[in-house]
TrEMBL record:
InterPro entries: Cupin_2, RmlC-like_jellyroll, RmlC_Cupin_sf. Signal peptide: none annotated. Residues 33-99 form the Cupin type-2 domain. It holds the Pfam family Cupin_2. It comes from Actinomadura napierensis. This is Cupin type-2 domain-containing protein. Gene3D superfamilies: Jelly Rolls (2.60.120.10).
Length: 108
């Protein structure tokens, strides 16, 4: 058992990173993705399945097939390869992110 400290907590993104990985195993990884209010989400589709849990903030998530408002408590599943982006970020957005398998592990 391990308590993952800081996972899902808001922290202002630095120039170096807006994503912090807090746990990594072969089968999954857990981290925090933060975007400030008015910020831009410039991520690309991932090669792993992904679950987002909104822990703070409000935004809209946009995929090719749907658009939805999200806020604290929202849980979003994004399958591997699906284009997705958070837009209209009206409050500092903190996301607990779970990748399965671990982030980047399917990248050639």
């Amino acid at each position: 058992m391990e308590i993952i400290k800081g996972a899902g907590a808001w922290a202002p993104p630095s120039e170096a990173a807006d994503w912090t990985e807090q746990l990594r195993t072969a089968d999954l990884s857990v981290g925090t993705y933060c975007i400030p209010a008015g910020g831009t989400d410039d991520q690309s589709p991932h090669t792993e399945d992904e679950i987002y849990v909104v822990t703070a903030g409000r935004a809209t998530i946009v995929t090719p097939d749907a658009t939805a408002a999200v806020g604290p408590g929202s849980v979003i599943f994004v399958p591997a390869g699906e284009e997705h982006r958070f837009t209209d970020i009206t409050e500092d957005l903190a996301l607990l992110v779970v990748f399965g398998p671990a982030y980047g592990s399917r990248t050639p």
